[in-house]
Each structure stands twice: as structure tokens, then as C-alpha cells.
Amino acid sequence: MPTIKITRKTLATMQPMEKITTYYDADLRGFGMRVMPSGVKSWIVEYRPGAGGRSIAKKRFRIGGMELSPEQARTAAEKVLASVSLGSDPAADRAGERGALSVAEIADRFMRDHVKKKRKANSVEGYEGIIEKHIKPAIGKKAAEKVTRADLTKLHNQVSEKRADGTGGPYAANKMLAVLSKLFNWAGDLGLIKEGTNPTQKIERFKEEQRERFLTGEELERLGAVLIEAETTGIPYDVEGDGENSRHRKKAHQRHVVYGPNITGAIRLLLLTGCRLREVLHLRWSEVDFDRGLLFLPDSKTGRKTVVLSEAAIDVLKSIPKIGVYVVASESAGTPDEKPRHDIKKPWAAISERAGLKGVRIHDLRHTFASVGAGGGLGLPVIGKLLGHSQASTTQRYAHLDIDPVRRAADIIAGNIASKIGGKH
Predict the structure, then answer these.
(1) How many domains, the chain?
(2) Phi-psi sector, 284: left (phi>0), alpha (psi -120 to 50), beta
(3) What spatial distance separates the first Cα and last Cα of the chain, rounded to whole Å?
(4) What is the three-class DSSP state of 224?
(5) Could you tell me the pTM of the whole model?
(6) What is the CATH number of the domain that holds 270?
(7) Which of 27, 88, 268, 406 is the 20 to 30 Å CA partner of 50?
């Protein structure tokens, strides 16, 4: 392992290798920087406990990560080595503390110190849902260091089974495994569990079916008709009640639910812009530029994003009444502590059922926007720009719908060949 004088300047030269590399300090024996292949860097100090001597195996103690400067880490290392000389064994003490930490305790710290500080609100919500629904009930009380690959394989299989409430399935099971993998890696980097022990490794993920669903032209017409019905006469539903004509005899009759322009407008905007649900629900009036026909989203999934509006989308925005800060008004609209609407699941369930759109999720409206563009031969780069994709590979899923350029190419090639062989063209 290399030995160098560790300073702020030499720290930048410590780049990740294929294997774990430890750089030892030339001035303080045992003090060093451990660099993982993933790029994670940790300050460490090595020592021989007790009386020392070569017959005693070395122990490694993690001091901290890059939140510490070289000077701070060196001072901490000196304190550790001083305690060792007085008969202490810091690594053994930490192992005892570490062994007592449960999965639930580490998960809570993972959410507090990592996810909530570094992830967006919708990601935080997703992590919390998986941890509270699947991870804590199954293995929350178990000591984190005693969780095995067999434990997680069993849990992975259990979550893959669809439940009566609609939760679970292969996609949910794989998502849970991904969260666990990040949790154990984070805990290992911080020394909360033994470094390099991640029980999710080598667990084979379930094959996931493509979940894209595109609305056909006929389905779009049905949806459009139901949106008009929803905001005018309302969507009917059957209820058991007393009835208007009798005080004693209960009977079934219909009632109607009217959904205002905020709900119907949100659905139309999802279709006409290809935006994600959160981008529409969190859209502020201050981010709408009617003059230039643009939306300026400060914090989308892929960062800052500018959305080009069509005339149809502008018309929808103009039809939505301004009640508060957000375009899609919530119950707190116009109040000092106004918050964006959380979701439109219930209205969408009623509207999609009325329109006969079985199995269509709200996110499929974004897929529909992209599929119409691809089918119209607009080209994947343009579609990717409209959707705000940061990677071209993300837009590639719509390639099979982009048939116009392929047909034009086929006409050119076949036309050339036909002209040579005397065929009709």
C-alpha cells in the first residue's frame, strides 16, 4: 500500500482503483485514507491492541469520511492511538455497539442523515413507504449485522407476491431490494456495520414486464368526453341511501361528483405537456410564462427544466382559476402556509373508470404524449427534449413507434433497387 504525506493537496490524487486502496501517512504511523472502488473515502487508523508486537493482529478503526479535513482526521487518529497506548481497544468497543444496532435503527438514521438531506421529496416518500411497509415489519428488530442473504431472499420472494390491497409484485420487490442495498452500503461506509458486508449482493432480481401503456385515439376521445362530463354535470355513482321519495325505505340511487377545473386541468396538462405528475402538481403561477409559452421548472426530477407549451396547453392554463400560489390548487390554497396538492389518485380512478381505461396509470399520460410524437415521426431527440430526458437511452423506449423515418428509408432503398431491376416505383 502506498505511503505518502497526506495533505489537502495530495488528497485530490487519491482516485478509486479496481480494488480497495489504503494510503498511509508518512508522518503518523497507522493513520491513512481508505479509498473504495465506488469512490467512497474514509479516514482510518490501524493499531495492534494490548501490548502490541507483531504477534498481535492489527485492527482497523474508521475515524470518519470526507466531512473531516486531513488536519481534523489526523488529530482524531492521534487520540485513538493515545487511548490504545493506555490499554483501550476502540475497534472492539465499536463492534460491541455496532452489533446492537437493529435494521430499524439504521434505517431511521439512513432516512434522517442521508435520504432526507440528499434526495427530492418524492424520493423520500418512496423510501419511507418501502421501509415502513416492507422492511421494518419483516426484519426491523433484527440486528443489522446478523441479516443474511437467505433472510433477504425470503423477503424478496414474499414482497413479489401481489396482495389484496394491490401492493407487492416483482417491481415492488426489486425496488425494496435496491433500497436495502443502498442502506447496507451506507451503513458499511459509516462503520455502522462491518465494511463490505452487503447481504443483498448476488440476489437475482425478478424480471419486470414493461409497464408503458399508451392511449389510443379512440381512448383519448373517450377520456376527453368524460373530462367535460366531470366538470359540468359530474360523474355518476351508485349509492345506498334513504332516497328522496321515502322516509323509511332505503333504495339505490345515483349521485354525481363534479370535479373542478383544477382537477380536469391537471389531467389535460399531463396529456398536453408530457410532464410528470409532481411537475404539474407543484407548478406555481410564477413559473408560467404566457408571453413566451414556457414553463420554468426550478427542480424537476432531472434538475432545472424548461417546458415548451403548445397553444392547447396554454388554453388549458388560462382556463384554470388563480386561487393561490399553485396552478393546481389544494385545500390550503390562498392560506399563509399553502402547500401543493399531494395527488389526484381518487379523481383519476373515477374518471379513468368512467372512460373505460382499464389499467391506465396517471404516468401513462406522459407515455401517451411521447408515443403520439414518436408515431408522428418527430424523432426521438425532439421527444427527449420535450420530456426533459437527461439520457438519450431513456427516450429509446419509444423507438419502435417511430415508424415514419423507417418507412421513408425503406421507400428510398427499395425505389433505388426497383429502378435497377425495372420494377414499379
Answers:
(1) 3
(2) beta
(3) 72
(4) helix
(5) 0.55
(6) 1.10.443.10
(7) 27
